[in-house]
Write a structure and sequence with these properties.
Layout (H helix, E strand, L loop, with lengths): L2 E4 L8 E3 L3 H13 L8 H10 L2 H9 L21 H9 L3 H8 L1 H4 L14 H12 L3 H12 L1 H45 L1 H8 L3 E5 L5 E5 L5 E4 L4 E6 L7 E3 L7 E5 L11 H11 L2 H10 L4 E2 H8 L3 H13 L3 E6 L2 E6 L1 H5 L1 H10 L1
Parallel strand pairs: 1-5, 2-6, 6-8
Antiparallel strand pairs: 1-4, 3-4, 7-8, 9-11, 10-11
């Protein structure tokens, strides 16, 4: 499963790495609303929540679906501005139909890549938006109904909310992180220019790769537990974030230029293995015999013959099971004289639960 962006024929100059204040505000609001997703930002989220004005917190809860479960595309600009005010000005220029459709994608668009009619014009999409918002709570349903009835008024309300967030906590937060984001964007841009897109993508995330087909097609492939894709006809924008890990967000809805928001590296944050590796590990451990073998070799390095004797299996049977575990990266070997001993890869096993969660949240 993956999301692909077809960039065949797209000039490299149209691929950009740029920080975005609005995108970072969206990431910060997500971390504030879902701190369990972001252990690295837990301290910031706790401190910010503790000092948040009750009225502002109440207003944030109304519009929370825009950034809590996912992230509305309106919060991930393809043409970032230098300031939050510039990006909010650009947001104001988006037509109502496009704005509302993108804002409500999480509650009324089950087929993201195919698009859906505007809830301002289509009664079925409108009902779906209200019903799905109601499932999140009466205040969220009220927010959706107000935007459907008065999109201009709600857009003014939403801009004021973002401006109040900036004054309350985000201006200070942005000042703290923007230099790191700009430095990472410069580094990725330098890699792109000197070594090419494949190297730059690998530096962004192990979940991104460049796929060059024999027919001349070129695609950016994002390793995610979803399927979809789009053609990048004008640009692809990469937005670094200090709050995003473990998420990697990809905008590819019809009518929007593709955007990828990626977490900048940190020594405190592990690199999640590819989903293919994660699947191999889960499948390897699904077999009860392999689980018992893992239990034995977790205690001491053990040979194939010893494992066969302990578990009353033939040596070829044990070898086949060990080969599956080794391919999945769960087992390592070392030679002692003429004997090959098998050991459990404790770091890989210890990270398995976290890797699964990160893969699901990516």
């Amino acid at each position: 499963m993956s999301v692909t962006l077809d960039i065949t024929g797209l000039p490299v100059e149209r691929i950009g790495f740029t920080p975005s204040p609005l995108a970072e505000l969206g990431a910060a609001l997500h971390a504030l609303a879902s701190p369990g997703h972001h252990p690295g930002a837990a301290g910031w989220a706790d401190a910010t929540a503790a000092t948040l004005d009750a009225g502002l917190a109440d207003r944030l809860s109304e519009a929370e679906f825009l950034w809590s479960a996912g992230r509305a595309d309106i919060l991930l600009p393809a043409a970032p501005g230098a300031t939050l005010a510039e990006e909010l000005d650009a947001l104001d220029r988006i037509p109502d139909d496009a704005f509302v459709t993108a804002a409500f994608e999480i509650v009324c668009n089950p087929a993201y890549q195919h698009g859906s009619p505007s809830p301002l014009a289509d009664p079925a999409t409108r009902r779906m938006a209200v019903e799905r918002a109601a499932a999140r709570g009466p205040r969220q349903a009220g927010f959706v109904e107000r935007m459907l009835a008065d999109p201009d008024g709600l857009r003014v309300w939403l801009r004021r909310l973002f401006e109040d967030c900036a004054r309350a906590f985000f201006d200070e937060t942005w000042e703290r992180v923007r230099h790191s984001l700009a430095a990472d964007a410069r580094h990725k841009t330098d890699l792109l220019r000197r070594k090419g897109l494949a190297v730059a993508l690998a530096d962004v995330s192990g979940a991104l790769r460049l796929d060059e087909g024999e027919d001349g097609s070129v695609r950016i492939v994002a390793d995610k537990l979803s399927n979809g894709g789009a053609v990048a006809s004008e640009s692809v924008t990469f937005l670094p974030t200090a709050f995003g890990w473990p998420h990697m967000l990809v905008v590819y809805a019809p009518g929007w230029q593709p955007v990828i928001q990626y977490p900048i590296p940190s020594p405190d944050l592990p690199r999640t293995p590819p989903l293919e590796t994660l699947q191999l590990r889960l499948e390897a451990l699904a077999h009860p015999v392999r689980l018992r073998l893992c239990r034995t070799i977790s205690r001491t390095p053990t040979t194939t013959g010893e494992l066969a004797a302990v578990h009353q299996l033939t040596a070829p049977e044990v070898s086949r099971h060990l080969a599956v575990l080794k391919k999945a990266g769960l087992v390592v070997t070392r030679r002692r004289g003429r004997y090959v001993q098998y050991e459990l890869s404790l770091p890989a096993v210890a990270r398995l639960g976290g890797s699964l969660l990160e893969g699901l949240l990516r």
